[in-house]
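User: For a benchmark we're assembling, each entry needs the component sequences followed by a predicted structure for the full assembly. Here are entry 17's components. Please fill in the structure.
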Amino acid sequence: MAKATKKPTRREPGRSKAGKAGKRGGSASRAGTEVPDGPGGYDGDDRPSVVLAVDVVLFAVRDDELVVLLVERGREPHAGRWALPGAVVEPEETMRSATRRAVTGRTGIVEPFTRLEQLAVFDAPERDPRTRVVSATFLAVCARAVPPPGGALASGRWWPVGVVGTDDGPDLAFDHAGILTAAVGELRGRLERTDLATALVEVPFTLGDLRRAYEAAWDADLEPANFRRKVLSTPGFVEPTGANRAVGTGRPAELYDRGGDAVLRPPMLRPG
Amino acid sequence: MAKATKKPTRREPGRSKAGKAGKRGGSASRAGTEVPDGPGGYDGDDRPSVVLAVDVVLFAVRDDELVVLLVERGREPHAGRWALPGAVVEPEETMRSATRRAVTGRTGIVEPFTRLEQLAVFDAPERDPRTRVVSATFLAVCARAVPPPGGALASGRWWPVGVVGTDDGPDLAFDHAGILTAAVGELRGRLERTDLATALVEVPFTLGDLRRAYEAAWDADLEPANFRRKVLSTPGFVEPTGANRAVGTGRPAELYDRGGDAVLRPPMLRPG
DNA sequence: TGAATAGTGTCTTTCAGACAATATGGA
DNA sequence: TCCATATTGTCTGAAAGACACTATTCA
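Assistant: Structure for entry 17:
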């Protein structure tokens, strides 16, 4: 907070003119060392540069297993293989809108996810054999793997994450195996340090429900007593409802709602 | 690993035909509930959908202060304001290539950063008043704030992060204030759990150098003894060289190189 | 009553925070 | 010698891991 000068007003003489020269001269006019300005260096040419798509990695827990929603491809390339739900981002819409369309259009699920977070952008030039497609990927989580993506629109299916890459698992299209691997890693990491897990369970939930969601996603066992201590000592993680729920045998468990937007500091460490 | 069925081969009868109908009929043919397939749902129309740009948030430490590289805009909109270095992603290049061009083209720095990581995508429709520009942002780090982005191409400047948003700081163009805020938060978080800090110092470095980088980025004081213990107990964080360096007064310090790709588990917690 | 699950208490271990003590150079 | 920085050692407190114990329900 010391050596900042007061609002410089230098205007790089002679450069704004050079920047305009050659505009709308085609793709070559934008490349090279001349860096255009604007958000992301946009220089006023309104011709789009690439196809931007979104791919959604939608996770859920079903039967104490982490599952991911995939759709079977009906067309080449990679016909018969399984892909992440995706959609092209139209010029007028947001990426978020495109993600909703990608999932709902395939499965008919009205409320497709309880949480949606950015993951990473995949831009390898040859990832689609037809043309350049850059994919912004999203990590999504929903509390119910049912209703399964069935009905008339059914081309989607929940796959256990554990079988992907094995003989019992789906063949993934394009670079989606890499995207899924990255997504699983990010999911596991964000469970360590955020309250993302509350989006994996239906409200109201018990601490046992929440713990089993962690165990499914991490493929590890957690000590119920220590888990409880960590969750309840984190402000804003869960909100007690005061009610109880008895399910089958055993002592009825206290019920909780999702808290605010909690950050776990220090994080809940994954065993191993 | 249990209930996976063996390689289903269902082919969604009747849908591949519907999917082809109306193709190349313009933007409307891609929107709606019909979800195209391919990476990101690309449907074979080779017309780009948006302008994709990259913006680079390049950090360094100078005089024990965290600084960020900004460039002054010479043209409307936002002429005279400061912006992150950015560039449009051309159809044939990767985002990484575009980031290098964005920084080098403005400053002439040959090796502009020692590390480049994805940050987030900003896609608010009105973020650029001229047209739809979607920006993939990158968190970059370099070990030397010098050579300053000077010389004939100078339109860039290192600004202390602490003065941004104050009367002594720059006016930021577009939504770059929000991007910078997100970048600072991510930088601070990644310093907690990765070895990113080693990219902020020149090799070889002392543990004092590394600690001062943390202190600048976190705007906090760290206990040298505890810092040393944490760094040296993390496999792959730093690599001893065996050499020493005497600088000014005080006992000469041991010199280290950057280690592999370390993960801090549990993380080094930021004070406060 | 016994099985099953929820919740409490407590001992131990690990690790970070604080800080004293020692090491080693330059002024 | 004095000062500044690096490095080592040690004490303490917070929090996680392990696990025994109690609580409450249903079969």
